[in-house]
Amino acid sequence: MLHSKTFVKKTRGGKVNKQVREHYLRDDIYCGAPICKLCDSSAARLSPSASTILLLDTNVVLNQIDLLENPAIDDVVMLSVVLDEVKNKNMGVYNRVRALCSNSLRRFFVFANEHHKDTFVKEMAKESKNDRNDRAIRVAAQWYQSHLGGAARVLLITNDKENKRKAIAEGISAETIESYVKSLDRPDLLDLVVQPSSEDVEMEEVEDLRPSKRKVIYTEHKPMSEITSGLHRGIYHQGKLRVNRYNPFEAYVGSESIGDEIIICGRTNMNRAFDGDVVAVELLPQDQWHEEKSLSIADEEDEEEDVHLVPSSADDAPRTTNLVQGSSGDTNAVSSRPSGRVVGIIKRNWHSYCGSLEPMPMPAGSGGTAHALFVSKDRRIPKIRIHTRQLENLLDKRIIVAVDSWDRLSRYPSGHYVRTIGEIGDRDTESEVVLIENDINSRPFSSQVLACLPPLPWSVSSEDLANPIRQDLRDLRVFSVDPPGCKDIDDALHCTALPSRNFEVGVHIADVTNFVHPGSPLDDEASQRGTSVYLVERRIDMLPKPLTEDICSLRSDVERLAFSVIWELTPEADIISTRYTKSVIKSCAALSYIEAQARMDDSRLMDPLTTDLRNMNVLAKKMRSRRIERGALTLASAEVKFQIDTETHDPLDIGMYQIREANQMVEEFMLAANVSVADKILKHFSLCSLLRRHPSPTREMLEPLLRTAAAVGLNLDVSSSKALVESLDRAVGDDPYFNKLIRILATRCMTQAVYFCSGDLSPPEYHHYGLAAPLYTHFTSPIRRYADVIVHRLLAASLGIYKLPSIFQDRPQLTSIADNLNYRHRNAQMASRASVELHTLIYFKKRPTDTEARVVKIRSNGFIVFVPKYGIEGPVYLTARSEKGGGEWFVDEQQQKIKKMDGSASYSVLQTVRIHMEVVEPQPNRPKLQLTLT
Amino acid sequence: MLSLFSLRKETQRRLRRKNRVALHHWSASKITTGSKLIINILKGTAIVKATICQSSLHSFAFVGGLLASSQNQLEILGPSLGRGARPYINSKQRWRNRIEMEFVSPEGLRLDGRRPMEMRQIRAEIGAVAKADGSAVFEMGNTKVIAAVYGPREVQNRTQQINDQALVRCEYSMANFSTGDRMRKPKGDRRSTEISLVIRQTMEACILTHLMPRSQIDIFVQVLQADGGTRSACINAATLALADAGIPMRDLVTSCSSGYLNSTPLLDLNYVEDSAGGPDVTVGFLPKLDKVTLLQMDSKLPIDIFENVMQLAIEGCKAIANYIREIMLENTKQLEYRRGI
Prior knowledge:
The structure holds two protein chains of two kinds. Chain A has six domains: 52-190, Rossmann fold (3-Layer(aba) Sandwich), CATH 3.40.50; 224-347, CATH 2.40.50.690; 350-424, CATH 2.40.50.700; 447-695 and 752-834, no CATH class; 699-747, no CATH class; 848-933, CATH 2.40.50.140. Chain A has a six-stranded antiparallel sheet, with helices on one face. Chain A is globular. Chain A is α+β, with helices and mostly antiparallel strands. Helices cover 28% and strands 24% of the residues of chain A. By secondary structure, chain B is of the alpha+beta class. Chain B folds into two domains: 4-83, no CATH class; 122-339, Ribosomal Protein S5, domain 2 (2-Layer Sandwich), CATH 3.30.230. In chain B, the strands form three sheets. In chain B, strands 1-4-3-2-5 form a five-stranded antiparallel sheet. A five-stranded mixed sheet of chain B has the order 6-7-8-10-9. A four-stranded antiparallel sheet of chain B has the order 12-11-13-14, with helices on both faces. In chain B, α3 (190-206) links the parallel β9 and β10 (215-225). In chain B, α3 (190-206) crosses α4. Classes of the chains: A alpha+beta, B alpha+beta. At the A-B interface, α4 and α24 of A face α1, β3 and α2 of B. Chain A: It is found in: Nucleus.
């Protein structure tokens, strides 16, 4: 079957050198059509009744991927030459095409024409690579035509004029994508067709609606060769463009060659770059560098700051550029940060975006098609111009739009409609938007994944009990403490007083790895999802429901498998010994935090469970105080809790999440278990453990906190976490909420903790700043976090229970898992926040409220307040937006104060103000929460 | 004190001049090439990006390319934490990209059109060097090696003579033109010495050396064209040449390599697949005796996968043994024909 033929192929790398590769041509590559009588049809993917088989040209695949993903396009033959070209040009599109080809519901067949003996074409003299590939496509089309005889029509779809002409001349039926879609008679599909921007057009001339604006708005991007040489000579700097989340007209490029961030101000300087693009930047002359004034809240015409949830860490917080004051006090001498402008885009980061169309009147009689502006939910993305035939349908919908091109003559990029999500303002639609924006997979689990589950109903079997690695701990008084209504109980505790006056304390964690085996579809899916996502009204599980809520969940009065960490503790809560074992437990009670707290507080109760709880609480308090002594931060967050109407799912009430002693008790033992496990796994696997670290904040990051503190006359010592803890403790103002407010401000200056692979960093970098622990990992929630699943496997391997799966030997892969976990974790948090914001809006829609708020930041035209009761933050404008820069108000930078010119009113930072909260709809269908002074 | 900015300017200016500075004090363990360091310059402390390189005698820091003349004494205070290590991540990503390269398409075809279990085209020819006692050319795809065997003959260097068995010597070399672009180093480099040793040991294991005491057998193998799997090709060529020379052997030792890329075991890696950096198992095998005489691997593999990969290589060895037998049979027929039998 090996029909081989060797010949040479020349490729050119960076240098001109001849390379010789073997290239085998085969006779066992089949056409994929079940109707074919010559070929082996066991692997055929095309439908047996297909009347037309489509062959696509590269340009069609590259530009029309959204259309291809629509189920209306089917029975497609993908040539390997096309796939190769797509892969070289755009990896994102390639991955999407590959997904289509492997999707069993779609009929996409990959034909390896480059290795088929009849369809391989050799490059001819003076023929360019492109022409050769076009010829290969035509040859393959011709082969299909003659191979299938008349059984099916083979249609070559190409938007390349020349290719189409040649194809027709060679007797192949060929069409452009647009004419093909038109022939399908599906007007909705036409919106998905991307309008070609370059000269290979073959569609009717798109008339320009705005002739007056036909002038150059952006400077031309430099050609790639110039950029490369510029980068070499140090004139240009390369980096990823990150747009300020709160001010889309400002972006940063982290440049390695400069070692600092370059600020890019305004769309003109950004020169059509999107957030996430890798760009080349040229520094502006120093006299044009961005002068740092306290930025006003809203910068340009239609952009303004929204009310949002309080950021929980520096990563979420709005970026403010801090002017580092020179110690001499001479502010003029200290230069501001370098500013630059984008000269070229090295790699685009375009994908599809969620949002809605800007309201506009229906254009009269433009033949059904209209140009509309799309506004993304993500403020960092500019408006996108799209061309649609179903404007009236889309106006009040949330839609997804993909970007195609950005001409330097047009103010906005142009894109095309991809699909509709639902009505604007509808809770389900908006939740869906939240999920899509954060790249969260909320699809039901596939059948392959579900096939990995053990048969239901499941119970502990005699084999599990007989297994020597599993210790029988069913006689222990184990209980769990969780939030009320919690169904995925992944941790349980026990505490036994020993005769030696010591205590045996155990943390029992659901033994998820007993059911999730490495390499199984279930494991792959879980590692992709990374974490469960908790929205206000629903939960998106990482593992299928039977595992999450039943088999793994350590519910009361049923036997469950667990992975236990058992310590012997002295009454002073010093750890004498630590033991790790797989176990079988039987929880005697699943308490909520409230119940546990009530039991501990009720002095009449003397039953054994309550005694255990009290003992544990005493131990936990000691551990906690020791931890704080070491410098662990007790930071405050402004987490809120909704009460949801069970019928309508509308929020009924909203309040700060209350933290009780019971919460702290459970948290303390979980921390201890995590630390013990981190120690253990690192000892055995020093290079491939998955740990969690929290980098120390730099002084720069703490600058906003220090400035605010200085303004209220507070001196914080941030030299170490211990010093910060002590000065935070001392920061007691005249009102009770002051300390908490300072803590909230401190929290938001910190970055988030991240997962990492221990081999990637040196041991001093493992440090967890917030917990003041040299080592930390996640072990205690394997049902809802994949990191814990990995740590369970590591721990099991370190005990010699299982072999270490092969993935741990591949450091790059482990690192990519850690990166994915960080990404998913962050997205999950963003999604939860967005969901809370959404419900806050729904809540206030019917209830305009007056409440107390605190000023947290001063801006030139107003200030930003924090509403403690609802955990939200938003701008209060002092000057109306129309009279911008009225000059009536004056900002005192040093004192963090905003004063009226005549001195009649002033607001300073951390001051309490009364505000009125109300949902307004400045534009139809776009409600937002407005804060005004009362 | 130099402010951060003017330092940067300074660095940029120096960058154009390209000079370098020896470090006085350095705690090498924590510092890797390209890491970001806190460096003491004159009296001020600043964080600059430094590239570290080590020559045999001195350690040098290239700060943003280079820094400082001899007056600007540098002292590394330690690696800077936090925002550091960016270049490192980049190199890691580059590595990952290489790992994620598609060596086997989802359709099950390798880059050169073979399926995972398929070998390259093999071709062998006996008697390429007339002067030698036995010789052969062996090709596996674009890898082409020539082997010449002299002996058994008198031992040239009497001190090396072994009284109860034959002395087997092997010399492996690569022709300067074998890789096309680069000139190889002269013979005797570590790689050739190692491969020479490997081939010698493999051949020694199958030659019945005790039948030829106080004699010497020389095996010369040279790579004419290299495209991965030279080691295996050399062993196969040497086997054929030994057989051609009529040296008594236990069995025909054959060799084949296999690898593991994209979670698929691949038979007979070519140069592109070999340079992916994945595991590469080379097996030497005695097909009649069903014994492995050579087993080498680069990189690492879990043991159960390794067994599969090794089994695949053994299958390859068996196929090659069949082919070699055919060639020899044909050669014998030719000899018969020439003698007019």
